[in-house]
């Protein structure tokens, strides 16, 4: 049981996965919101049943699983439809993440939530004890996106612009991992935070 939970966020290609991996290598359980978002709409889940009820059987494939492309097309250009979908999925994602963190066998747990700033920050996740932001300058995010995803310059910029701003994310941060240089520079920062979180978790329990 983990009684101390750290929320980890950062902009696209800021290095969240890289940082998460390093915490995991130290034995810390990381609950991933992207994985949770898939798990809560698995075949047989209450959320999938509600989606089918709200959006119709067209958003299901023949095997009963979610037709993501169909659903995306339905909500893409319609904010009201998108909100209706999120009203079904977001509470389920938050609940699953919280359960995974509480059940974690490590001294503390990390909830990796890429879109934490976009979904309402701490208000949406009041059970986070601490928030750490992985931060990189926009130009660095842009270059990594082009390299990692093969995005062209315009698409990379659109992906960045579609997210909360760097300032909005940093406003949530109690801790910051600066990832603007060599990946090796991450290790000392992660280890320092790890010691800090271990101490905070020990104090809590
Ligand atoms: P996120 O999970 O935030 O989207 P990633 O951890 O996947 O970001 O990092 C984005 C890309 O940039 C990956 O290809 C990763 O290997 C690379 N990357 C991350 N940090 C650095 C760094 N300090 N220097 C160079 N490349 C990096």
Characterization of the model:
This protein folds into two domains: 1-28 and 106-205, Rossmann fold (3-Layer(aba) Sandwich); 36-104, no CATH class. Helix content is 52%, strand content 12%. The protein has nine helices and five strands. The chain is globular. Adenosine-5'-diphosphate binds at residues 10, 12-18, 144, 148, 179, 181-183. Residues 10, 12-18, 144, 148, 179, 181-183 line the site of adenosine-5'-diphosphate.
What ligands does this structure carry?
adenosine-5'-diphosphate
Q: What structural category do the secondary elements indicate?
A: alpha/beta
> What's the CATH architecture of the largest domain?
3-Layer(aba) Sandwich
H/E element string?
Answer: EHEHHHHEEHHHEH
Please list the strands of the largest sheet in the order they lie side by side.
Answer: 2-3-1-4-5
Q: Could you say which overall geometry the principal axes of the C-alpha atoms support?
A: globular
State the low-pLDDT regions, or none.
none
Average per-residue pLDDT, rounded, comes to 96
CATH homologous superfamily identity of the largest domain: P-loop containing nucleotide triphosphate hydrolases
Descriptive tags:
52% helix; 9 helices; 205 residues; alpha/beta; binds adenosine-5'-diphosphate; Rossmann fold; 5 strands
